[in-house]
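[INFO] parsing input record for Xylose isomerase
[DEBUG] input buffer:
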Amino acid sequence: MTSYFDGIAPISFDPDATTDLAYRHYDPDEMVDGKRMEDHLRFAVAWWHSFAWEGGDPFGGRTFDRPWFGDDIAAAKAKADAAFDLFAILGQPFFCFHDVDIRPEGASFAESSDNLARIIDHIGEKMANGGPRLLWGTANLFSHRRFMSGAATNPDPDVFAYSAATVKDCLDATHRLGGENYVLWGGREGYETLLNTDLRLEMDHMGRFLNAVVEYKHKIGFKGTILIEPKPQEPTKHQYDYDVATVAGFLQRYGLEKEVKLNLEQGHAILAGHSFEHELALAASLDMLGSIDMNRNDYQSGWDTDQFPNNVPEVALAYYEILKAGGFTTGGTNFDAKLRRQSLEPADLVAAHAGAMDVCARGLKAAAAMLKDGALEDARRERYAGWETEAGKGLLSASIEDIHARVLREGINPEPVSGRQERLENIVNRYV
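[DEBUG] output buffer:
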C-alpha cells in the first residue's frame, strides 16, 4: 500500500449510509434479470484520467499534485501502486490504460518500448496478487507532436510506421495481461483543411493499418475484441471516425465489419449531435456493440468535459439498449472521466467513482425493470404490426409495378397513426 489513500476504507454496499464513500445502489452480488450486477456492469477504472491527468484545461495548467507525477520508471511504478490501492478501495473488476499513462516516454522508440515492458511486468505482479483484470489496453497516438497530422492517416510514412510499431507493443502488452479487448482511439485521424489533404489516400491508409492490427491479433492468438472508439469534432475538425454510422461504413468498406466492434462514449455521442442511446442502438443493430465509456459532457460547454455520470434517466436509457442487445460480452463500463480541476483531495477521486457506479447501478435496475415490464417493447411491436401480416411481408419481395397495382386495386389511402411519444416517455418516467 502507498500512503496516498491513507484513511480511506474499502467501499461497501450500505443503502442507509450517510457518507459519500459508500455504495447505496451498487451491490455486486445483487441479481438483476438472472445475472450478478457486477457481471452486468463490468466496471473499469481508467488509468489516464484518474492517475495521469494533471488537472489542466485550455485556459490553465496543472492543479493536481500527485506524488507519482514524474518521468521515470520509479514514478511509473509508484503510479501503478497508487492505482491498485484505488482498485482495492473500489472493488471494481477491471481497469484499462493507454501506453503513455503507465510508462515514461523514452528518448527513442526502443527506450519507450523497454519502459512499457518493464511497467507491464510490475502491473502483472500486482494483478497476480489479486488485482482486477484488464478490460482493455490502447495506444496514445494523438498527444505527442509527432501525431499532429494523425497516426495511421499521417502524410509522413515514418509516422505511420512508428504508430504501427506502437500498437504492436500495446497489443502485445494487452495480450500478456489477459486483456479482454484492445481499443483503437483515433484522436487525430482526420483533417483540418482539404487544401492539403488527400482524403482517399488517408482513408485507404487507415483501412490498411486496421487490417494489419487484425492480422496481428490472429497471429498472436489474442482472443479479445478489437474496438474502435468513434470521436467527433475534437481535436480534428473532420474526423474519419465521427460516429457509429461513419465507422460502420468505414469498416464495411475495408472488409472489417466482422472483425471490429465499437467502444462508445456518451460524451462523444453528444458531440456528434446524437443521444447515447441512439449510438448504442445503431451499433447493436449492426452487430458492432462492444464496450462503453460512461462519462458525460457539460451541456453548456461545446467540448468534451469528461465528467462522471450523474443523470440516472440518461444512464437507464443507455443500459436499456445494452440489455436489449443481450448485454456485454467482452466489453464493460469504463469511466473515461476526470475530476474537476478544483477537486484536489484523494477522497474526491474515490467518491467520484463510487457515485458514478451507484448512478449506473440505479440505471441498470431501471432498464432491467422496463424490459421485464415490456410496455415499451409491446408498443414498438404494435407500431410495426402491419409488417407481420401477409400483405406487409409481401411488399418486401414485390416489384414496384405489383405494389402500384395493389394500391389501385385495393384503394389504399392510409391515414397517419400516432407515435405516442409523450405516453412512452411517461412510461420511462415510472422507472427513473
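[INFO] The mean pLDDT is 95.
[INFO] shutting down worker
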